[in-house]
Design brief:
The chain is of the alpha/beta class. The protein has 2 helices and 11 strands.
Length: 155
C-alpha cells in the first residue's frame, strides 16, 4: 500500500466488512484498492506454505502472513502446521508470533500462551485492532511495549 509494502487482503465473505451493508463494504474495498492493496473477496485460503498463500490453485507469494479468521476460528484446513489450541485458535506469543517464522496470528484465531496458561481471545473489534497495531508496528521495526495483544478469557 502507500507505505511501500505490498498488501493482499483475503475476505471469505462476498464483500469487505460483511457485518455492514454491502454498499459500505464496497466503499472499503475501493478505498483499499486506491491505497494499492490487492483485495480478494468470496475466497478462502486453501494452503499456507513457506512460499506463500494458495487460493483455488493460484499461489500468491508473500513475505509475511497475518491471519485473522473471524469470531469462530476458521483455521482447520489452511495448511498451517503450527500449534493450535483445543478450540482451534493458533497459539501465539503476546506479540502475535507463531511457531512458524514470518507468520503472525491476530484476532479471534489467536490465543496466547502466558506462563503456561492459554489465554483465549476477547472477540472484540477493539482487541483485534490493538493486536493489528502491535504486529504492524513490530513488522515495521517500531518498538511499542505499551500495546499488548488483549485477551480476557482463559481456556
Amino acid at each position: 500500500c502507500s507505505r511501500g509494502v505490498s498488501v493482499l487482503l483475503i475476505e471469505r465473505a462476498t464483500h469487505c466488512m460483511p457485518h455492514l451493508p454491502p454498499a459500505v463494504g464496497l466503499q472499503v474495498h475501493q478505498a483499499l484498492e486506491q491505497l494499492g492493496c490487492t483485495v480478494i473477496c468470496g475466497k478462502t485460503v486453501d494452503t499456507l506454505t513457506s512460499r506463500g498463500i494458495q487460493i483455488e490453485g493460484t499461489e500468491y507469494s508473500v513475505e509475511c502472513a497475518i491471519l485473522a479468521t473471524g469470531v469462530t476460528p476458521a483455521t482447520p484446513g489452511i495448511g498451517f502446521d503450527g500449534t493450535y489450541t483445543a478450540h482451534g485458535e493458533i497459539l501465539t506469543t503476546k506479540e502475535g508470533t507463531t511457531t512458524r517464522s514470518n507468520i503472525y496470528a491476530i484476532g479471534d484465531c489467536a490465543a496466547q500462551l502466558v506462563s503456561g496458561t492459554i489465554i483465549r481471545p476477547t472477540y472484540r473489534w477493539g482487541a483485534a485492532i490493538a493486536q493489528g497495531t502491535t504486529v504492524g508496528k513490530m513488522l515495521r521495526g517500531i518498538p511499542d511495549h505499551s500495546v499488548r495483544l488483549p485477551t480476557t478469557s482463559t481456556a
